[in-house]
Amino acid sequence: MTIYEQIKELLADKVNQIVTTAQVKEELQRKFNTNPGSVILSDYCYNRYNKGILFQKHLFQYITKSTYKYIGENFAYTGLIFHKPQKQNGELIVGEWRNGVKVLYDKPININTTPESLNIISTSQIVKLYEDYNEILKYEMSLLGCKPTELRHLIGRIGEFLCAIVTMGSLSKQTNQHGFDVISNGKKISVKTTAQSTGFITLNQNTFDAFDEIFVVQYSNDDFNTIYYGPKEPIQNIARKYENKYEVDINRIKAVYQEISKKNF
Question: What are the residue boundaries of the structural domains of the chain, listed by start?
Fold first, then answer.
């Protein structure tokens, strides 16, 4: 019996459970007298590729170096496939799963050196990220008692995913910044997300010429709502300048969007 078959038999009653490398090695040795040094769980992952394997046998979702979620064979998995080359910092994205269908990229994505290659990632992956991040947001607020205004980074990322979904665009790394723009129909969209009911959003005057459109999302009443999507000029016209930033009142953004929507109707 191969190690692959041994793992399937050993974990048959542990589907969707998290297991550790040490635990699996110990139990395989006890039950099958398997050499622990021969057991490499990452060789059997959906979301991790190891150099030198055929990458045809999949049982686990890689979580950390020592923890894995056992999901079994032929799982309708959706997610990215990562590879960690030896002697290299960071990881490569070498492919993805789309509802159980494996797709390997012609060239791996290295976000640190070729951020423009993010446009390879399919809409189905962005939708999954949107769903996963929303689930984390619910846990943060409902279970851990955090307020939306305390989760700006998380909410901001969800806004970026929402923009990519709505515009059928792709993510594009912002130069020298932590966030992402969205590219759709050849236009670069700057995404701003807020959990405030009133107040203002800010735009960097120094990078204002670097994008074409603005997408503004407001999180309120357990929902993400688009309060502006269109050219940047109407937003610039109602903004006030403060140091090197544009400050734009949220209620004025809504009013401008309503006016534009009426004209386009």
Answer: 1-113, 115-265
115-265 to CATH, choices 3.40.210, 2.60.40, 3.30.1050, 1.10.10: 3.40.210
Exposure string over 129-139, b if 16+ CB within 10 A, otherwise e: bbeebbeebee
Say yes or no to pLDDT of 3 above 60: yes
User: Per-residue pLDDT tens for 182-200?
Assistant: 999 999 999 999 999 999 9
Report the greatest alpha carbon distance in the chain: 75
Per-state percent for the chain, helix, strand, coil, to nearest 5: 40, 30, 30
What beta strand segments (E) does the chain contain? 17-20, 60-62, 67-70, 79-83, 92-98, 101-109, 170-173, 180-184, 187-194, 200-204, 213-220, 223-231, 240-242, 245-249
Give the CA distances from residue 195 to residues 58, 173, 225, 260, in Å, rounded to whole numbers and listed in that order: 40, 23, 10, 23
pLDDT digits (tens, 9 = 90+) for 29-67: 999 999 999 999 999 999 999 999 999 999 999 999 999
Q: What is the pLDDT of residue 117?
A: 64
55/40 Cα distance (integer angstroms): 13
pLDDT at 265: 60
Report the SS3 class of residue 98: strand
Q: At what angle do helices 3-10 and 21-32 cross, to 10 degrees?
A: 100
Which token pair is 115? 């951020």
pLDDT tens digits for 138-180? 999 999 999 998 999 999 999 999 999 999 999 887 654 555 7
Both tokens assigned to 230: 């269109």
